Every structure is written in C-alpha cells, then in structure tokens.
Amino acid sequence: MNEKTAAAALVPELAQLAALGVERSITRAAARSGTSQPTLSRAVRRWEEALGVRLVEPHGRGVRLTPEGGLLTAAAGEAFRLMETAVRRARGEAPGPTLTIAFLRSLGPPVVGELVSSFLREHPGVLIAHLEASTAAVLDGIDARQIDLAVTAPRPPGRFGWLHLGDQAIVLMMPATHRLAGRSAVGLREVADEAFLSLDHRFHTRQVTDALWAAAGLSPRITMEADDLRTIANYVSAGLGLALVPADSAAHPRTANLPLAEAGARREFGLAWRAADDRPLTRSFVDHARQLNERYPGWADIDL
C-alpha cells in the first residue's frame, strides 16, 4: 500500500488514515501520505471531533492508536487498497505483487501492524491483503492457498512453517466500577463465584483459559459464550460478568483489565505459512519477521 498513489488524490483523508494505521506514528504517517506532521495532527483532531471518539492517545514521547483508532485505521486500509486496485484496473495496469496475511483479531493491531509497516518500508510496491479469522479458518486458508501467512496461536502441525513471535498475557476484564478494579493483580480464586463471559470452544483463547481454571482446581460459572471479543467487552462493560481475555485485544472505556496472579497466564503466538511455499515474497516476509526477532528481542510480547 502506497499512500502517495493516484488513489490518494481521490481520497486524501482516507489515505492519511490508512497510513496512520500502518505507521502507528503521526510523523511517519504524514511522510507516508505526502503531508506534513502538523497537517495530519490537525486532521486527526478534526476526525476525532466529527466521530466523537479518540483515535490516538499519548504514549511515551509519541502517540499510539486507541482500540477505536485501530478499528477505523484498519477499515481505512482495506478501503484504500480497494481504491488502489480500482485505479490500477481503470488505467489498465497490471496488479503488483500481493501477500494475503491473516491474523487472529486479538493479535491484529499491536503485532500485525508493526510487521506490515516495517515490511512495507522495505517493499513499498507490495499489496497487503488482510483477513481476520479463527485459528482453524486461518490454517484451512493456508492449506487452500488462499492465505499466504498468518499471525496465529497456537503452534500449528508440522506441515506448516512456524516462527515464534512472542507471548501474550491473559488478563481479567471487569467493569470499571467492580470492587477489585483498583487492584494490581487478581487471583482466579478471588472471583471464582462470579459470572463469566467467554469465547466459545472454537477459539484458542478458550482452550488457554479453560486450562488456567483447571490448573487452579476451579470451574468457572460461564453464563454466556460469544465469537467476538468486542461483544464480550461490551457485555462486561454493562455489568453482565467478568471475562478472561488476551491483553490488548478488547479494550473498552468502561472496563478495567487486571493481570492474573496465576503463573503461566500467557499464550505463545507466531507466524505460520505453508512449509512448501518457496515463493520469494513469502520467504522475504518470513525473513523480515526473523530479523525483527533478532534485532529487538521481545518486540512482539503483549502485556498490560
């Protein structure tokens, strides 16, 4: 995705929003979309006022996307890629090389964003197609050659290539008004009598959380199952129960996420691909991810 193409002339603000999703930095997104940092900063404030939601928040010396910002920039990226494709077709141009990258929703913004943005800085002509899916759907897609690579969990069977990327904490989500919301950590035994909301059994997160309960010698009182972490976050915010969720996956302004006191409240995730896939573009992406691991150990770990 190149936000300085002819498509950007048609939808400049969409290009800027898409660039912000790739770069995760106002300065770099401005350079990527061919505008100035002050201009993009003013645009972000204008979008926030129009939408009534925060897109970015202070983080260290810069900013980071809010969950709402991650959602909207990802949608902008998809829409901008469609516009780029339409422009190329209208001009009769051959499409550029494409990589289809799938990911679990709980791993998308923090990990896939960094992987893709840093890769595209070195390979600006590549079109990245994104897909969100469950672990099973991701692996089926790789088998069917509809998906090239995936950021997923757990480690798949041996017919797939695998590169460990990081570990993600499992945290306790509760309403912001809950009696324990101010704690630094909570043990499962302290909340074992409360109602819990959970992803259904198709999801790896559910397997991990079931194992945590079993290791603690407890059985949770699950009152609702869902197939979307955002649905769970909405219900938790309404006071319908608590939930065990991957860190940084379903933030909500009316919930609090607390670390678990239990050891091992984490899951491994990594990059998967068809082991027999020897295409140069796929190998280039894998090599890029491996170089990130070597240069910045722990770069992809996700904690509160």
TrEMBL record:
<dbReference type="Pfam" id="PF00126">
    <property type="entry name" value="HTH_1"/>
</dbReference>
<dbReference type="InterPro" id="IPR005119">
    <property type="entry name" value="LysR_subst-bd"/>
</dbReference>
<keyword id="KW-0804">Transcription</keyword>
<dbReference type="GO" id="GO:0032993">
    <property type="term" value="C:protein-DNA complex"/>
</dbReference>
<dbReference type="InterPro" id="IPR036390">
    <property type="entry name" value="WH_DNA-bd_sf"/>
</dbReference>
<keyword id="KW-0805">Transcription regulation</keyword>
<dbReference type="InterPro" id="IPR036388">
    <property type="entry name" value="WH-like_DNA-bd_sf"/>
</dbReference>
<keyword id="KW-0238">DNA-binding</keyword>
<protein>
    <submittedName>
        <fullName>Transcriptional regulator, LysR family</fullName>
    </submittedName>
</protein>
<comment type="similarity">
    <text>Belongs to the LysR transcriptional regulatory family.</text>
</comment>
<dbReference type="GO" id="GO:0003700">
    <property type="term" value="F:DNA-binding transcription factor activity"/>
</dbReference>
<feature type="domain" description="HTH lysR-type">
    <location>
        <begin position="17"/>
        <end position="66"/>
    </location>
</feature>
<dbReference type="GO" id="GO:0003677">
    <property type="term" value="F:DNA binding"/>
</dbReference>
<dbReference type="InterPro" id="IPR000847">
    <property type="entry name" value="LysR_HTH_N"/>
</dbReference>
<dbReference type="Pfam" id="PF03466">
    <property type="entry name" value="LysR_substrate"/>
</dbReference>
